[in-house]
Amino acid sequence: MRTLLLQAPRDFVDAGIPKGYMLQVITSSTGTPRPSEVREALCRAGFSSRADRYDSAGNWIITEL
Questions:
Q1: 19 vs 1: CA distance, rounded Å
Q2: Computed from CA positions of residues 46, 53, 24, 3, in that sequence, does the dihedral angle turn out positive or negative?
Q3: Fewest CB atoms within 10 Å of the CB: 13, 26, 27, 59?
Q4: Is 30 exposed, middle or buried (0-12, 13-18, 19+ CB in 10 A)?
Q5: pLDDT tens digits for 16-60?
Q6: Alpha helices in 1-65 (DSSP H)
């Protein structure tokens, strides 16, 4: 299992996620995290289902911890 740090590169206004917000995702994938893993992390962080549209790894700046 790997731990990734995802950072919002811009304001995701409709989801309430500010630019620079950091999200920690634990993933079993060898590449980018699966959308389901990002959705789970967003839910744990307290964001509503509107944030689900940003579950693609392409929406985030990804750094491995």
A1: 27
A2: positive
A3: 13
A4: exposed
A5: 999 999 999 999 988 899 999 999 999 999 999 899 999 999 999
A6: 35-44
- pTM of this prediction? 0.89
Backbone angles phi, psi at 39, to 5 degrees: -60, -45
Q: Is 34 exposed, middle or buried (0-12, 13-18, 19+ CB in 10 A)?
A: middle
37-53 burial: b if 16+ Cβ within 10 Å, else e: bbbebbeeeebeeebee
Bridge-partner residues for 6, per DSSP?
A: 23, 62
Burial (CB count within 10 angstroms: exposed 0-12, middle 13-18, buried 19+), residue 62: middle
The β-bridge relationship of strands 2-7 and 61-64 is antiparallel
